[in-house]
């Protein structure tokens, strides 16, 4: 057995997720994107002869789909140009693959017989919010993973059952979060909303998400750093928005925040409070591709600092180290300052004393 994919899963998920995530792949053949930690699903298409399958498999199987013999809880109906959900869904189904079709919506009882569903893949369809009944998913009391990336949703779907752990809604047209959407989702740990059209976060929009760990809001329309985010988050991705500043208090109240990505915004010194990022929990801070002229004050516990492609012209050691002594130094391992207005010979003599455990510096 080739253990490499498994090892890379562990390598990716280990440090990021720690033990907080109960990874339930249920035997699903997945590839994990090493950089994003994102599962992508292997299609069975072209791997097996469907007619052979049908001839030897005695279990019921919708004609549009394939039912792997060794994995009776899975149903593959992906990449078939389906405009409608196949009828006669076997009630044994726990993993339903419907990605890459042409679905715009579902009848209200489409999942009525699929009460054992755990993972539902609806990526790359044309789903419209107006064609998803409010009660569509509410009977799926085993559902833990819902994939709806790359669709045409304009709202976060309502009525999700309370035990859902991962919700992927990246690359839709989402502008609004209807009131109470997340109210019951206290077990949700991962919420992907990158590539949507969110502009503001209302006070109660994310209310209920008491276990949320990762929130990805990359590539939306935020002009201001959003407030009212769930206090439990440890990974917050807000790159590729249009934010000009970060107020001093906006990052207070996130005791677990470890990974903060704010690259590709329009951050300027005037808008960024000098102490906004001085949070002792931070491990990684990405401020690349902004308009900063100074290195902001960061905690000495920070390990990864990305400041490439800004307009920084001075290297002020005090941003990284308040004092330098045998016990007081910066834990930074990787520091990127390339694509700025700094030259190597401009580094002050004392930087080596401060950056004592540095692995790589790019100037
Ligand atoms: C997908 O659905 C749309 C509208 O329902 C239709 O116009 C189009 O031909 C369909 N495409 C495919 C590949 O079936
Ligand atoms: C659910 O199962 C019942 C009984 O087998 C059947 O009559 C009904 O049509 C099924 N509903 C759906 C939406 O498949
Ligand atoms: C979904 O959005 C795409 C553009 O992102 C568009 O081409 C397509 O027609 C839309 N589909 C529906 C059913 O509205
Ligand atoms: C959330 O997860 C816990 C622990 O796994 C479980 O006991 C609880 O029932 C779940 N909550 C909901 C609403 O399903
Ligand atoms: C940034 O987001 C926009 C949409 O808001 C998208 O078109 C663009 O490709 C993204 N750029 C990068 C570098 O991710
Ligand atoms: C940054 O945080 C440290 C530790 O909490 C504190 O001692 C220091 O004064 C802070 N610096 C600034 C500029 O806020
Ligand atoms: C470095 O920053 C500190 C405060 O953060 C400031 O007092 C000092 O003047 C700065 N030094 C230079 C050379 O800019």
From TrEMBL:
Residues 1-18 form the signal peptide. InterPro entries: Leu-rich_rpt, Leu-rich_rpt_typical-subtyp, LRR_dom_sf, LRRNT, SLRP. The keyword Chaperone does not apply. Pfam families: LRR_1, LRR_8. Keywords: Glycoprotein, Leucine-rich repeat, Repeat, Signal. Residues 60-95 form the LRRNT domain. SMART domains: LRR_TYP, LRRNT. GO terms for cellular component: extracellular space. This is Lumican-like.
